[in-house]
Specification:
The protein is mostly helical. The chain is 71% helix and 0% strand. The protein contains eleven helices and no strands. It has helices spanning 3-7, 28-40, 48-66, 71-92, 98-116, 121-139, 148-169, 175-191, 200-214, 219-237, 245-260. Helix 5 runs parallel beside helix 7 (148-169). It is elongated. The N and C termini lie far apart (41 Å).
Length: 263
């Protein structure tokens, strides 16, 4: 599913994560077996970095395989992928190339995020927390100056994981997670472009999260939060990247009405 389809796919507005994993191969089960066979011939103690790379490839194959599985089978594949990445980051060690570590933590976070989509209740919340933590680990390794595209993708997913945690909580207890989501999207909005302009999709996501946050507030705090949401939405509405700008303008009108109605 593309980013913009996620943004405008209908239903409840949610902040959008970034580019999903690569397309599923024609025979994902065979790709898993191929990756297993390749990993078996490498010895962790002799070639720890090469072994870590093989585990990362196996994890990626398992994630792609999970995309065509159902129920517990998909969850098991994703859990195995996370286990592979745990072992891979451990083998690589903290002094490995930061970009390599970031790519593994990012994939680990993505596996947990996809696992959360197949769970409910506390199990879903734990998987989302796992995802958010791994995305945080990834961002600790890189900056927009060193690996901009990866940094942006991770920032989007981190924000989405925190927002979903907050929505799962469903009450004022989710406010800290919405604040984390807003911080993640704000970072991408302010630092995600090379020319220093505001990243329009991150700006849109900021407005979505702030609208969620306003629902947990009253009076002046609610008004100020909605006004901030409107500011970010107006920035997004000026961009040409969105397929249906009228939808954003309609949201601006609705926000104006909501702000005016606050006593």
């Amino acid at each position: 599913m593309s980013l913009l389809k996620r943004l405008f796919g209908g239903g409840e507005k949610t902040a959008a994560p970034a580019t999903p994993a690569a397309e599923v191969p024609a025979d994902p089960r065979a790709e898993v077996q191929k990756a297993r066979d390749a990993a078996r011939v490498i010895r962790r103690q002799r070639e720890p970095l090469k072994w870590a790379e093989a585990q990362q490839l196996l994890a990626n194959a398992l994630i792609q395989y999970a995309a065509v599985q159902t129920g517990g089978s998909a969850v098991s594949s994703l859990e195995e992928a996370e286990s592979c990445l745990y072992d891979a980051t451990d083998a690589a060690g903290p002094d490995a190339n930061p970009g390599f570590l970031a790519s593994m933590y990012n994939l680990w976070g993505y596996a947990a995020y996809r696992r959360a989509a197949r769970l409910d209740g506390d199990a879903k919340g734990q998987a989302l927390a796992d995802a958010a933590n791994r995305f945080t680990d990834a961002l600790d390794k890189i900056t927009p100056e060193t690996q901009r595209a990866l940094w942006i993708d991770i920032g989007f997913y981190r924000g989405a994981a925190y927002q979903e945690l907050a929505l799962l909580k469903g009450d004022a207890g989710g406010a800290p997670w919405l604040d984390e989501a807003a911080a993640a999207f704000r970072a991408v909005a302010e630092r995600g472009t090379e020319d220093g302009s505001v990243h329009p999709i991150a700006a849109y996501n900021m407005s979505v999260v702030l609208r969620d946050r306003a629902r947990l507030a009253t009076g002046g705090v609610k008004r100020a939060t909605l006004q901030d949401a409107r500011r970010w939405l107006a920035i997004a509405a000026e961009s040409s990247v969105f397929p249906n700008p009228d939808q954003l303008r309609q949201q601006l009108v609705a926000l104006d009405s909501e702000i005016a109605a606050i006593s």
